[in-house]
Amino acid sequence: MVELIATDHKAADEPNQRTKDRLLLLLKTRGAMTTKVLAEALDISVPATRQHLKSLGNSVESARHTRGVGRPAQSWRLGELAQRNFPDTHSELTVRILQSIEKTLGGEALDRVIADRYRDNEQRYLQSIGALRSLSGRLKRLVHLRNAEGYMAELDKTRDGWLLIENHCPICAAA
Question: Do residues 55 and 48 lie in contact, with contact meaning Cβ atoms separated by under 8 Å?
Fold first, then answer.
């Protein structure tokens, strides 16, 4: 079983923290689960499970599902915050792939791969933005597209024009 990093200020060996870590691991490995199924998997009561889920705050997200007559079932899944507890080596993998392309095929091949990616992005942006007439509408759509890519973009109107701000670079390591 994978050992998770503590998700709060309590020591990782405290019983409550171990239960929370097990709960997060279950949601990561098995996907969305109802409170009852989680309780059974953790071998604790449904109220105790609800208490642990509540204490995890934004680390988990819930949805209610109606199944005919009776109280709707509540299912839980990992929230974005909880994903930080699990290793993410996407950027390292990307850098290694780019290094391998350059090493095995040469710098020119890497330049062609990057240029191809640039053209793909440009074409996708043009398809999404091209029909919009106003500059502000086009810029707002660009912000939406960049946010979908993880750039945390925002748009500010200044007295000199527009300022596109990107607060995060999801490809920083590769760049």
Answer: no
